[in-house]
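I hope you will forgive my troubling you with a question about protein structure. The full record is reproduced below for your convenience:

——
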Amino acid sequence: MTGSQWRAFIAAYLGWTLDAFDFFLLVMVVRHVAATFDTGIKAVTYAIFLTLAMRPVGALLFGMIADRFGRRPALMGSILLYAVVELLSAFSPSLGVFLFLRAVFGVGMGGVWGVGASLAMESAPVGCRGLLSGILQEGYPLGNLLAALTYSLVFPHFGWRGMFVVGSLPAFLVVFIRTGVKESPAWIEARARVRSGSRTDTAGFWSTLRSRWPLFLYMIALMAAFNFFSHGTQDLYPSAFLERQRGLPLATVSRITMIYNVGAIAGGILFGTLSQWMGRRRAIAMSALLALPMIPLWIGPTSAAGLAVGAFLMQFAVQGAWGIVPAHLNELSPTAVRGTFPGFAYQLGNFAAAATGPLQAILAERHGGDYAFSLGWVVGIGAVVLAALALLGPEARTAELAQGGAAMQA
């Protein structure tokens, strides 16, 4: 890869990593935010719901900006929005204001993945796309790991509000993108075709959606299963399960969170690489089904060491499947609307799974506060559904992203 390709990839990777970092700062402190505003955990989980629910708005908004004006300005705008709102969240005077800001945060967060993934995948050589996809997507668990580290270092001294102040640092990434990253060659090529024709970008997206709606609906369903699968293992696991139900101290929860995110990174890179030769669909299904035997190891142990091992193995499987997503969705999407198409489908699927946290909290409450019960059932069902959807769908592993749309393979 050339220096220009590496810089584009690094920009997308850091944007997604710091996006996840800011999101998981809230996940780490759900219980403490609830205590500050004198409410229950379930009420604060709606902040997670609103963030996830507003991500499709950001994907559509910043995706259209990316298709019309370029991947770079759209990526910079989305990063700046979520970083500023993260800072404002630190000064929330009430739960209502906090919930509103987390909804706006979701708009910024929703724009980052689709735009960043299209910039990275369009700039990458075909032969290493699987590996780079795995690395790119695992910026998400790296962000989780950084959030856990921040929790252990910042929270004891400055509380959850201090953590959100630290969460504004991604704004400085905009400087690197502005000065060091070139525009996607695929976007430049697509814009040249648009200028030579009579169709606007907006008409292009909606007409593409009308003609490719079966593919679009399939991608939404696939991403709903993906998000149900991953959020079911992440959102309530540190605070509600490890800290509240298992009674583990803050330092131990932070260490376990960092350990299972190392497993997530390893799984994403491995299965992303494997998907380059065995196919995207089969690699997703294999990794998803691998999570099933991990469930007893993940929620069953009573010791911190046992929980750490089980959490490592679970996230290895969960994020192994996720490592394939950036390449898979971008390969399936038409070039002219790739800034919008994969990201919008991703975030609509995310919206469909946005109630995962509240659902798990309700299930736990109905079973005597047993979060192990709700976590285990959600993950088990999610793994089976995801594997089935992956195997039933299309694939375009060898598509040239800068030369026309995806040519699907049976």
User: Anything to note?
Assistant: Residues 41-69 form the longest helix (29 residues).
